[in-house]
């Protein structure tokens, strides 16, 4: 049996992760819509043997990271516009060989047939390296871009998401493996008996016809999810194969890991069918002091309006502009409505943070774990989580690009390899093979087999 090793995702938007990362002397914000720059970052991650390149996505201009929403004169933040990820990854896949691609798409504002089609296409184009990060879309601003009078509440969004994934998997199974014969002699392009229509009629969707793309090389693109709420955890237990999480302590990470893995059995799944990958932002250098200086430099570059906008976006669209930035965070003035809000407030209370201190603390990774130190110090902590039921791997959020990504590849990866915690070469050619995930069987074939046995 192969030794268990850390899995790594690289969450690398072209404008950096830290709220002020684009202002770093080595950052190249002017290239954020350059395909050549995106390819450069992907190749760096592949040089570091990352499992996948991950991109978040939204369907509205994101003003929540800067107060310019209110004055509409000056934009302070980089988190406003960017590439549509499936399109970007299709291009990058042509010039990479092993790294996978995790593209985000919404179950609230997209349709199952179109989504199934584009992800199946990406899986074919990339030769089995596609993954879908399932989101229900938290931003209420999105509603007005799609003719909605109001943004659906969380319960409705998760209920819709459950049915959405069910329909998409039926569509991916529209064609059995080997359905396409390409038999020139007899004139048979495909075997009609190996095509299946989903004939789905549900609460939210009515999808009758088969997908017009053959079954993806991986069976299904890998299903990824990031919810931490009760509904999010249950959806992950039912469908997800990778889950991104945000924890600040070993004990919290262990509790989440055990809770989500413990839910899989009721869906006929094994704990190894789901990889838990907490987010982590790493500031690393040859000395601890140098690493701290990297962290402090970026925090000095945070525009206060961006800091306030960041808190508003993460803590529930709250307006902190009338508060003293250096006064204690006003915990008593805000009603907690989400798991991410709860985490923000727990951080503020634990450290007795002011508003400014809280936004500096979360600026590097939006509430994910932040590590600062030498390669040995950082890997000590990653290893502790990995070996103590807190993580199967990590979704790495480099604070700056390209510098932060280069630092991780050049400092952290060699130390992980030295300890035998990380691969020295890719195990396979598909994302599933590299993550150690099984390829799903076609559900219609399974039904036929079960029917045959029963009869």
TrEMBL record:
Q: Name one GO molecular function term.
A: oxidoreductase activity, acting on paired donors, with incorporation or reduction of molecular oxygen
Q: Which domain of life is it from?
A: Bacteria
Show where the Luciferase-like domain sits.
22-387
Q: Pfam families annotated for this entry?
A: Bac_luciferase
UniProt KW tRNA-binding keyword: no
> What CDD domains does its record include?
Nitrilotriacetate_monoxgenase (cd01095)
Keyword annotations: Flavoprotein, FMN, Monooxygenase, Oxidoreductase
Q: Does the keyword DNA damage apply?
A: no
Q: Which residues bind FMN per the record? A: 57, 104, 158, 229
Q: Which family does it belong to?
A: Belongs to the NtaA/SnaA/DszA monooxygenase family.
According to UniProt, the name of this protein is: LLM class flavin-dependent oxidoreductase
Annotated organism of origin: Acinetobacter variabilis
